Please model this.
Amino acid sequence: MNAAISHSLEGRPEGSHGAEQMGHLVTGGLDLSHGVALYLEDITVSFDGFRALNQLNLTIDAGELRCIIGPNGAGKTTMMDVITGKTRPDAGKAFFGQTIDLTRLTEPEIAHAGIGRKFQKPTIFERHTVFENLELAMKTDKRVWTSLFAWLSGEARDRIADTLRLIRLDKEADRPAGLLSHGQKQWLEIGMLLMQEPRLLLLDEPVAGMTDDETMRTAELFVSLAGKHSLVVVEHDMAFVEKLGGKVTVLHEGSVLAEGDLATVQNDQRVIEVYLGR
Ligand SMILES: Nc1ncnc2c1ncn2[C@@H]1O[C@H](COP(=O)(O)OP(=O)(O)OP(=O)(O)O)[C@@H](O)[C@H]1O
Ligand SMILES: [Mg+2]
Model:
């Protein structure tokens, strides 16, 4: 690794998704020929005998925007841990597209295959500018880099400019990222994910701590990303889920309790019982 990059990566919080995770080990491309981006079948994860996921089944279509809701401890984050290779399931199948068996890949290999994950706490480089953060996140072959801020191709600059507009930070490009608002930091991290060109984005409680206005702008951003990307969004904020407008999956005790549009699942008696407590 180049000295300037390794220096910059020092002090980066855990769970970072940066270019350092790019492996070169994934064989074969993503096959979306059947229109399915993610397929989980009978996934079970036990922690000391406790089933955090219990024969979980989930299918996400290519380009779909899916919300996952459910009470605390339902297994939502554990599900993302399985998809990203952080946690190995005890049983079940997990496929990215038709051919990529996620249970056989390491975390860096899964990231490289095209699954990006956003954790709740932004993991950005506070002392670098917004522009530099996006530059650092770009999928680049580091072997050909001579220095961190070496000459950028026009195409790369265009991609950064497009992403800056998309995440509404074009006016903040030259500011140190540490000076952004909480919501803007979250957007920057989403932008950093996008620079890696993921096909599937996993977002765990992305609007926690945002203002109402930032929350609604984030919903607009996610809606605009659907189609080109598949998105799986875990969120407790129902106004946000409603604004996203996609299909909703309710998890409870590690399994799917209900699935459908938000109004349908909200009127489902089993869902009401789970949320209100019996
Ligand atoms: N590493 C672990 N070891 C032991 N138990 C764990 C571990 N990770 C998660 N669990 C347990 O598994 C269950 C599911 O946790 P998970 O974090 O997936 O829930 P969640 O749906 O994301 O909840 P929340 O809405 O609070 O974020 C919980 O009971 C949790 O305590
Ligand atoms: Mg969670």
About this structure: The mean pLDDT is 86. The CA atoms of residues 2 and 185 lie 26 Å apart. The pocket of magnesium ion (ligand 2) is lined by residues 76-77 (CB under 6 Å).
